[in-house]
Amino acid sequence: MLLTFAAASLVPASAQQVNPTAKSVTEQQFLDALKGNPSAELQGRITIPDQKAATLERPAGREWRAFHQGTMLRIAAIAVLGTLLALVAFYLIRGRIEIAAGPAGRTITRFNGFERFMHWLTAACFLVLALSGLNVTFGKLVLLPLIGPQAFTNISVVAKWAHNFLAWPFMLGVALMFVVWIKDNIPSTVDLRWFAAGGGIVGKGHPPSKRFNGGQKIVFWSVVLGGAALSVSGFYLLFPFYAGGVLNLQFWNVVHGIVSVLMVAMILGHIYIGTIGMEGAFDAMGSGEVDLNWAKAHHSLWAEEEIQKGEVNGGPRLQPAE
C-alpha cells in the first residue's frame, strides 16, 4: 500500500484550501482545519481498492483514546472500588440482617430448578465477562506489574477468548430471565411503600412485598436493559464491519465500557445481599428452598399466597390466618 502524503486532501471544504505540498503546512494546521467537525478525516491517496485505508488522521480517534485511557479508568475505579468500600462500611455499621423470628424449620420453594439454572448460567458467564473486561481496563496498571509480561499475555489471551464465547450464553440467560420473570417484576404501588420503608435494610422492620421486592425489581430491569445494551454493543465489537464505521465503533465501545462497570457495581451489591449480607438469602438460589420465617419477613405477601396454596414443606399443611 502506498500513502502519498504530498497529495493528501482534507474532507472538509475549508481544509481543501490548504496546500499540502507547502513546506509551511504542519500537522497542527491540518488538525486545526478539522476542528468543529467530529467526523472529519484527513485522507491521502492510495493504490488499493479499500478507500478506508486512505485515512491519515482522525481527530475523534484521539478523543476516544483519551477517554478510554483516562475518563474510563476513573469511572471504573469509582463504580467498582467505591461500591466495594461502601459495602464494607455498610457491613461494619449494619451487620448481617438476621431472621428476626429465627428459623422456622419449614421451607417454601422459592425458585425451581430451571429458574436456578438460568440464574447461575447468567451469573457464571457474567463473572467471567466482568473479570476479563476489567482486565482490559485495569490489567496493565494492576496485573502486569505483579505477574510480568508473559503471564499477563497468557492470561489476557485466555480472557479474550472466554469473553468472546461466553457472551452468547450470557445473552441467552438474560433473555430467559426476561421471559420467565417479567410477570413478577412489573412495578406497583407495593414497591413504592417498600422503598418508603427503607426496604428492611434501613431500620429493623421489613415492609410487605410480593415475590420480588422493589430492590430486586431494580436489579432485574438493570440486568435486562443493561444486558441488552452490552449484547448490542458487544455484537458490534465482535463484528466491527457491521458497526457502520470507526466512529460508530468507538461509540459502542464507550457504551460497552460504561454499562459494564455500572453493572459490575450493581451486581457486587446483589452478591453481598445474597451471601453475607442477609441470613437465609443464598438458599433461594442454592437449594431453591427458603425458610418459612425468612419468607414471611422479606416477602410476606408472596409467603401468604404460598401458604394459601399449601406450598409449605416440612410439616402439616398450614392454614392461612383469618
Automatic annotation (TrEMBL):
Membrane-crossing segments per the record: 72-93, 120-141, 161-182, 218-239, 251-273
GO cellular component terms given for this protein: formate dehydrogenase complex; plasma membrane
Domain of life: Bacteria
Domain (Cytochrome b561 bacterial/Ni-hydrogenase): residue spans on this chain: 110-287
Cited InterPro entries: Cyt_b561_bac/Ni-Hgenase, Di-haem_cyt_TM, FDH_cytochrome_b556_subunit, Formate_DH_gsu
Cofactor entry: heme
GO molecular function, one term: formate dehydrogenase (quinone) activity
Listed GO biological process terms: anaerobic respiration; formate oxidation; respiratory electron transport chain
The protein's name: Formate dehydrogenase
Organism in which the protein naturally occurs: Bosea vaviloviae
Lineage start: Bacteria, Pseudomonadati, Pseudomonadota, Alphaproteobacteria, Hyphomicrobiales
